[in-house]
From TrEMBL:
<dbReference type="Pfam" id="PF00854">
    <property type="entry name" value="PTR2"/>
</dbReference>
<dbReference type="InterPro" id="IPR036259">
    <property type="entry name" value="MFS_trans_sf"/>
</dbReference>
<feature type="transmembrane region" description="Helical">
    <location>
        <begin position="362"/>
        <end position="383"/>
    </location>
</feature>
<dbReference type="GO" id="GO:0042937">
    <property type="term" value="F:tripeptide transmembrane transporter activity"/>
</dbReference>
<feature type="transmembrane region" description="Helical">
    <location>
        <begin position="184"/>
        <end position="203"/>
    </location>
</feature>
<protein>
    <submittedName>
        <fullName>Protein NRT1/ PTR FAMILY 5.1-like isoform X1</fullName>
    </submittedName>
</protein>
<dbReference type="InterPro" id="IPR044739">
    <property type="entry name" value="NRT1/PTR"/>
</dbReference>
<feature type="transmembrane region" description="Helical">
    <location>
        <begin position="403"/>
        <end position="424"/>
    </location>
</feature>
<feature type="transmembrane region" description="Helical">
    <location>
        <begin position="209"/>
        <end position="230"/>
    </location>
</feature>
<keyword id="KW-0812">Transmembrane</keyword>
<dbReference type="GO" id="GO:0016020">
    <property type="term" value="C:membrane"/>
</dbReference>
<comment type="similarity">
    <text>Belongs to the major facilitator superfamily. Proton-dependent oligopeptide transporter (POT/PTR) (TC 2.A.17) family.</text>
</comment>
<keyword id="KW-0472">Membrane</keyword>
<dbReference type="InterPro" id="IPR000109">
    <property type="entry name" value="POT_fam"/>
</dbReference>
<keyword id="KW-1133">Transmembrane helix</keyword>
<feature type="transmembrane region" description="Helical">
    <location>
        <begin position="486"/>
        <end position="507"/>
    </location>
</feature>
<feature type="transmembrane region" description="Helical">
    <location>
        <begin position="95"/>
        <end position="116"/>
    </location>
</feature>
Length: 580
């Protein structure tokens, strides 16, 4: 194998041998990965999009309980990746963590299909009316759901980062390809979500829940077969540290220990290894930044105690990066709460409206979620092929606009969407009062298509938010913690679901106490869902102000790098922040 054709970032094959740049990685390797992402998203959204209806119609849960349980499960799906990412970064690597976790995921899908298909495991139904589920049936159903959540914990944070690993940051051509990777990666997930919200939801409500869950189970097995066919093409990153997350504890402790020492006037006097002395291919050192200066004490050269282990500037800066990402992450929780409405209250809102489109065809309320996906599918190519090149010429930024600008635009669109949702709900309640509708089963004479604008705008917003967050947290993570870094994206969605569950529960109890009318009652025709949407609009607007403030203070990662075939150091400037 000629050294000059080996990847410059030090990636290896499954056996640990260096890989040829010409025959591995890039889009030809990612082609085997995107199939899994599409089928996995089809499975997840095939469950999440219509779960609230299954819980209310088949398991007889009330509105607040069903919304809370959907949010709790969705939150778990998005939070368990923290564990999976830690295992990948510290022990097994991305490939093997994904492999073991995908088996758990498939097992959960099989269990769930059985829970809605096998006669003894599901409630008995006659003419569409189901009897109350037994405790054992409910237990098995939720065990199935949370088995899926556990499996997702190992697959979600590792499959996308494994895909990004297929591009060599030290190769200019491949680095340019990587700029578009996350756009097209999310595009594949949108395809899976579209099939789920259009096809699977209809199948579940009209042909049976067993078939509706069985199709994505088979699809998931097929996608895993395709994934492993691509094994000879995959590149695997070598872990530089056995337990990189330990630096997050070691650096603050060292800084506290050195709290009485004087910080040097120049950052160049802090401790750092020489770039030429780094081991392994694709050498990277993170450059010093002037934020969180108290942590710099961890890298002070203490001449009075040479035996005490010192932290390098790179280790200190890695901890600073994580602290900065935590602050940005906190500002994404409210937008994640807004996103949680798509599979919960938006669906329940849709069930009250006239769902007949033509003749005898009625659209399932959960299928409106497909318009979120459709707007995403239309927006991603436009964003990548037209918007980015246009803005690149204007700003000189390789991404067109900065990552945090991308998030800010998405948050503004999301606020507009929730404002429209509020206005539509005000109109719905006006129609309810005008027609003297009081019962929960009465259909409001207002087309469900009135809800389309809020779905479509949330899809547009997600092209900026979801893809922007995934790329931001991958790009800004310390090199050895990129799987763990991307869990900032997944955990934000998870906490957003739990936050929505908390808000729904608290608002229901506070507004319904002392005989008052709950904003989110079982009978949405006699509630005040518009007040709740107004509340979400207010906190979203306030959160936008907080986001703009913390973004203006964020300083982006800069690295000094050295490729395998050269010893010249250069700055890899990724400072693509809100500042221009």
């Amino acid at each position: 194998m000629e050294t000059k054709d080996v990847t410059q970032d030090g990636t290896v094959d499954l056996r640990g041998e260096p890989v040829l740049a010409s025959t591995t990685g890039k889009w030809k390797a990612c082609a085997f990965l995107v199939g899994y992402e599409a089928f996995e998203r089809m499975a997840f959204y095939g469950i999440a999009s219509n779960l609230v209806n299954y819980l209310t119609t088949q398991l007889h849960e009330d509105t607040v309980s069903s919304v809370r349980n959907v949010n709790n499960w969705s939150g778990s799906v998005w939070l368990t990746p923290i564990l999976g990412a830690y295992i990948a970064d510290s022990f097994l690597g991305r490939f093997w963590t994904f492999t073991f976790s995908s088996l758990i995921y498939v097992m959960g899908m099989v269990f769930l299909t059985m829970a809605v298909s096998v006669k003894t495991l599901k409630p008995t139904c006659n003419n569409g009316v189901c009897s109350k589920a037994t405790p054992s049936q409910i237990t098995f159903f939720y065990i199935s759901l949370y088995t899926i959540a556990l499996g997702a914990g190992g697959t979600k944070p590792n499959i996308s980062t494994f895909g990004a690993d297929q591009f060599d940051d030290f190769n200019p051509a491949e680095k340019q390809m990587k700029v578009s990777f996350f756009n097209w990666w999310m595009f594949s997930s949108f395809v899976g979500a579209l099939f789920a919200t259009l096809g699977l939801v209809y199948i579940q409500e009209n042909l049976g829940w067993g078939l509706g869950y069985g199709i994505p189970t088979v699809g998931l097995l097929f996608s895993l077969f395709i994934f492993y066919l691509g094994t000879p093409l995959y590149r695997h990153k070598v872990r530089k540290s056995r337990s990189p997350a330990k630096d997050l504890i070691r650096v603050p402790l060292a800084a506290f220990r050195n709290r009485k020492l004087q910080l040097p006037a120049s950052p160049s006097e802090l401790y750092e290894v020489e770039l030429q002395g780094c081991s392994g291919g694709g050498k990277r050192l993170v450059q010093h930044t002037p934020i969180f200066r108290f942590l710099d004490r961890a890298a002070i050269k203490d001449a009075t105690n040479c035996s005490r282990p010192k932290c390098t500037v790179t280790q200190v800066e890695g901890t600073k990066l994580v602290l900065g990402m935590v602050i940005i992450w906190l500002a994404t929780l409210v937008p994640s709460t807004i996103w949680a409405q798509i599979n919960t209250l938006f669906v329940k809102q849709g069930t009250t409206l006239n769902r007949t489109l033509f003749h005898d065809f009625s659209i399932p309320a959960a299928s409106l979620g497909s318009f979120v996906t459709l707007s995403m599918l239309l927006s991603v190519p436009l964003y990548d092929r037209y918007f980015v090149p246009f803005m690149r010429r204007k700003t000189g930024n390789p991404r067109g606009i900065t990552l945090l600008q991308r998030l800010g635009v998405g948050f503004v669109i999301q606020i507009i969407a929730i404002a429209i949702a509020y206005a539509i709900e005000v109109r719905r309640m006006h129609v309810v009062r005008t027609n003297h509708i009081t019962q929960p089963n009465q259909v409001v004479p207002m087309s469900i298509l009135w809800l389309l604008p809020q779905y479509i705008l949330l899809g547009f917003a997600d092209v900026f938010i979801a893809i922007g967050l995934l790329e931001f947290f991958y790009d800004q993570s310390p090199e050895d913690m990129q799987s763990l870094g991307t869990t900032f994206f997944t955990s934000g969605i998870g906490v957003g679901n739990f936050l929505n569950s908390f808000l729904v529960t608290v608002v229901d109890k506070l507004t319904g106490q002392n005989g008052g009318k709950s904003w989110i009652g079982n009978n949405l025709n006699d509630s005040h869902l518009d007040y709740y949407y107004g509340f979400l609009l207010v906190i979203s607007t306030l959160n936008l102000g907080v986001f703009l403030w913390v973004s203006s203070l964020y300083i982006y990662k800069k690295e000094a790098i050295e490729a395998k075939d050269g010893i010249e150091s250069k700055a890899l400037d990724t400072s693509l922040g809100l500042q221009v």
